[in-house]
Amino acid sequence: MGRDRFGELQGYGGQDDTAIELGAxxxxxxxxxxxSSSSNNNNIDNNQNHNTGYADGKFFSVLDSAKAQMEVIDxxxxxIAYWHEQALEATSEHKYHQIIFDRDNLVSETNGxxxxxxxxxxxxxxxxxxxxxxxxxxxxxxxxxxxxxxKFSEQLQRYHQMEYQYSxxxxxxxxxxxxxxxxxxxxxxxxxxxxxDQAGQVFAQSVMNSxxxxxxxxxxxxxxxRQADIKxxxxxxxxxxxxxxxxxxxxxxQQEAIDTIESAxxxxxxxxESAQKEVKQAIVYRIKAxxxxxxxxxxxxxxxxxxxxxxxxxxxxx
Length: 318
What we know:
Subcellular location: Membrane
Main location: membrane
Number of strands: 0
Distance between the termini: 138 Å
CATH class: Mainly Alpha
Domain T-SNARE coiled-coil homology: 220-282
CATH architecture: Up-down Bundle
Shape: rod-shaped
Family: Belongs to the syntaxin family.
Protein name: t-SNARE
């Protein structure tokens, strides 16, 4: 809760409560382990096959884990939206505090999951640069990673939009309470008061002489707490926007990597086709050459037979 400004204006001391912080989006990068290869050619081939299989298994393990976490995030976002609705409708101070406590715990858990998914996406992205993996396999993995990153980006957008709508409705509620205290306030003055923590002060000043001090103090605390809640939500909105930009940049980088690998694969495929054509031509030339040799041998045999016949009838016969 915020300071008891109503008490301060009447000579009472105020005390600050510590707001529940929302989880931070810190993403750490992890990579794959490398395996040393033997000098023996057979061992090198075996190690490379082992590395490829390990990297592929690791990739799908991280991919499946990230998908499962995103499913939990979806459910959490729905529950957070429910708590937001309950917080807006809460009339009891005790009930409001319990709702905010439960919601903030869930927000902290969700933000932690978001950080883990971002970390998993960073880990998956590293496979594109792994030279031990065949290019075709790298393209397939990069495409899966990019698809998951796009879904994650859409998920962040939904979360961001939900938090924005809640913040907007909370600000509208504060604006109505502010206008009760200052009916002549302009829209600009209302916005400035909410942004600069002046709403509670103005309200306190308007009710400090009221005989219903207990009720006035309760309403003042509600104004201050909702104002603090708006700040927390706006911090989350800012972090979600930053995360969205990072993931969008990751998707773009991954697309560039996919295009580069596919281009290299197509170029290699073209070289293979060209080599196949040359081999086919060489086989045709070889067949033709062999055919010519056999024809020459056959002609030589015929000539020898003819010579033998001539010699037989002209020399031996006589």
